[in-house]
Amino acid sequence: MNLRSFPEDSERLASVTSLDLKGNHLRGIPGVIGNFSGLKELKVENNELISISPMIGNIVSLLVVMLDNNLLSELPATFGSLTLLQRLSLMDNQLSELPSCVKSLTRLRRLNVENNS
């Protein structure tokens, strides 16, 4: 699929537990992502992401976030609210330093930041 934006009616998907948006042309993750209150796994690898809405911090149920092969140079500070997060992959982005919000992720078991700027 070649999605360029989130589906407009995605707020109806609050009961989704796994969202896989790999291999599209998404430039950002909009604020509506905060409505996915039951989400445990978010995979948005191989897109063109340059931004993530701070509303992602509302999804406190997240366990896995995969953001490899995008254009991210930073994460929103609200990532620090994802205290159940166990796996975060940011490989092949444009990060110049480890985002400070990662320090708050005390349950994090796997962190991949290979091949960043």
Automatic annotation (TrEMBL):
One Pfam family, short name: LRR_1
Domain of life: Eukaryota
InterPro entries: Leu-rich_rpt, Leu-rich_rpt_typical-subtyp, LRR_dom_sf, LRR_domain-containing
GO cellular component: cytoplasm
Keyword list, A-Z: Leucine-rich repeat, Repeat
Full protein name: Uncharacterized protein
Species assigned in the record: Guillardia theta (strain CCMP2712) (Cryptophyte)
